[in-house]
Amino acid sequence: MYFKALRDTPLVRPGVDIQEPYLDTDNESRSIPAYLIVFVFAQLFQLVLAWDAVRAQNTIEMIAIVIFNLCCFAYSIFEISQTKTSLGDSSAFLDPAWSVQQLVDTLTPLLIVVVVVIGITQCIVTWLAYQLFQEFGWKIYKKIGADPNMKRMYRAYQIYLVLIKVDLFFFVGFSIQFIYLTLTRREADPEYWLTIIVLPLTIVILYIAVYAVRHESRRWMSIFIVSMLCGVAYFMFKVVRMYIGDKKQNYVGIINFLTLFATLCLLTILTTIANAAVCYRNFGKGLKAQIIKGSRRTLDSTSSSGERTLVLD
């Protein structure tokens, strides 16, 4: 009902052609569904991240989950005031049957519940992450050993894998907002189709990133780093386009949030490039062999334990 009120309300202003609400540059409320979609995507992403952290026994990823959930908590608080402000600034675009106050009164309790739930889960996630961090630390020690250089290389490897996943989240989140809020389905608008094409291409590039580091392939890692540099140019182009050119009026009311997301994308990409260079430098120094050896040792230990259980029975 809420989304119907925002998207399907006809816009009739004197001297202005009727257009869809989410394309009207003065309609602040067009940003609310996009914010909520990104928030839902963040929760699903965090669920996958938690599963992957337990599966891979990645201590760095456990820390990332705690930080990520804390960011979601802060975002949920921000969403309350942002929703009220956006609805208040776009009252002229709502059907007279739908008052701004009615929408605010309906949404505010739901948004407060989200804040409370995420706040409680933050405490639970932090405690669980601490317990798993200790457990994973011992297993990593058995896999990698006590060599400080090997531990340093393995830590860089873990950070690299986490950054790849964070890159995926920020890029998809930015693309969702950009497509929904500023672009139209018109053949005359090549930027729309460019953004659509870049989405699956990004997944392929990130797969190359994981393959390169796990197989210590210098060629594929070089291709990945070059691709990420292209990503830097892509996001810089997006940011500049928001402030300069004939389309800057499309970003009224949403430019601050899009700029924030694009900046976060740039920061994570640059951090990933720096960490990828560190991993590239570590190729051929024994980390790959040590991980394989440690995995086999863990598997043999599990098998031996199972055999002893059968004998005792």
What do these coordinates show?
The protein has 2 domains: 26-145; 146-288, no CATH class. The protein contains 9 helices and no strands. Helix 2 runs antiparallel to helix 5, helix 3 (59-89) runs parallel beside helix 5 and helix 5 (148-182) runs antiparallel to helix 8 (255-282). The chain starts with a helix and ends with a helix. The protein has 313 residues and is mainly α. Residues 145-263 form the DUF7789 domain. It comes from Lobosporangium transversale. Keywords: Membrane, Transmembrane, Transmembrane helix. This is DUF7789 domain-containing protein. The chain crosses the membrane at residues 32-51, 58-78, 110-133, 159-180, 192-213, 220-237, 257-280.
The coarse silhouette is flat
Can you tell me the number of structural domains? 2
Structural class: mainly alpha
* End-to-end C-alpha gap: 62 Å
* Overall pLDDT score: 76
- Tell me the total number of β-strands: 0
Percent of sequence in beta strands: under 5%
In DSSP terms (H or I, runs of 4 or more residues), the helix count works out at 9
Strand and helix order? HHHHHHHHH
Give the helix/strand layout:
Elements (H helix, E strand, L loop, with lengths): L1 H6 L23 H26 L2 H31 L10 H45 L3 H35 L7 H26 L2 H26 L11 H28 L4 H26 L1
Helix pairs in contact: 2-3, 2-5, 3-4, 3-5, 5-6, 5-8, 6-7, 7-8
Keywords:
313 residues, disordered C terminus, single chain, flat, 2 domains, disordered N terminus, mainly alpha
Kindly summarize this structure in a few lines.
This protein is mainly alpha-helical.
